[in-house]
Amino acid sequence: MLVRSELKYLRIAPRKTRLVIALINGKKVEEAQTILKFAIKRGVNPILKLLNTAIADAKNNFQLDPSNLYISKINIDGGPMYKRWRARSRGMAAPIQKRTSHITIVLDELKPGKKIEKVEKVETPIIKKEEVKTEKPKFKPVAEKHPPVGGPKEVRGLKRFFRRKSI
Q1: Residue 21: closest CA among 52, 57, 46, 47
Q2: Domain 3-109 falls in which CATH fold?
Q3: For the chain, is the Cβ count within 10 Å smaller at the N or the C terminus?
Q4: What is the pLDDT of residues 51-62, one digit of tens each?
Q5: Closest Cα to residue 78, out of 100, 56, 55, 62?
Q6: What pLDDT digit, counting tens, does each position of 126-156 carry?
Q7: How many CA atoms lie within 13 A of 17 on its CB side?
Q8: Which string of DSSP letters, residue by residue, matches 15-32?
Q9: What would the pLDDT profile of 80-102 be if each residue is shown by its tens digit?
Q10: Checking phi first, is residue 15 left (phi over 0); if not, alpha (psi -120 to 50) or beta?
Q11: How far, CA to CA in Å, does 6 sit from each of 30, 91, 119?
């Protein structure tokens, strides 16, 4: 049974709230609540409140057990933008767009045989110091036999003491 909850006209930009939903998408409800309680972002509180609302809907309206729920889909769309102006130099005005978000969360019930897809960890081989081979370069730098073309410059007259002025 799918349980759907929406939050509309949230006064936080969608770009900022998408950072928060990336943390909890596809997780069990209890784990998502724990992650949101300890995350340090401004968009965490409204999303946590929406998640709690969706859990309450599932429990009261559909008699589902909250421990068997997981977040099957969470989506953030852009809402209307409030357009404001800021004064700039020479009598000009610069536009400011205050963006809003529409958040939709869909909870689903875990079936007894169904598991949540998790990203598999890739094992990295441990390299010991003995196994690391350092190769020396095959070529040797050639020593300069001849001085650079032109040679040292001869200074006639007085030496320059400063870069801009000469005496």
Answers
A1: 47
A2: Ribosomal Protein L22; Chain A (3.90.470)
A3: C
A4: 999 999 999 999
A5: 100
A6: 666 666 566 666 666 665 555 556 655 555 5
A7: 27
A8: HHHHHHHHHHTT-BHHHH
A9: 999 999 999 999 999 999 999 99
A10: alpha
A11: 19, 42, 28
Q: Give pTM, 2 decimals.
A: 0.66
Token pair of 51 as six digits:
């998640």
Give the strand pairing for 69-78 and 82-87.
unpaired
Q: Token pair of 36, please?
A: 């949101």
The alpha carbon torsion through 148, 149, 152, 153 (nearest 10 deg) reads -150
Beta strands in the chain (DSSP E): 3-10, 69-78, 82-87, 93-98, 101-109
* CA distances (Å), origin 167, targets 155, 156, 164: 13, 13, 10
Q: With contact defined as beta carbons under 8 Å apart, do 74 and 5 qualify?
A: no
What pLDDT is attached to residue 44? 96
Q: Which amino acid is at 91?
A: G
* Pairwise CA distance, residues 135 & 132, whole Å: 10
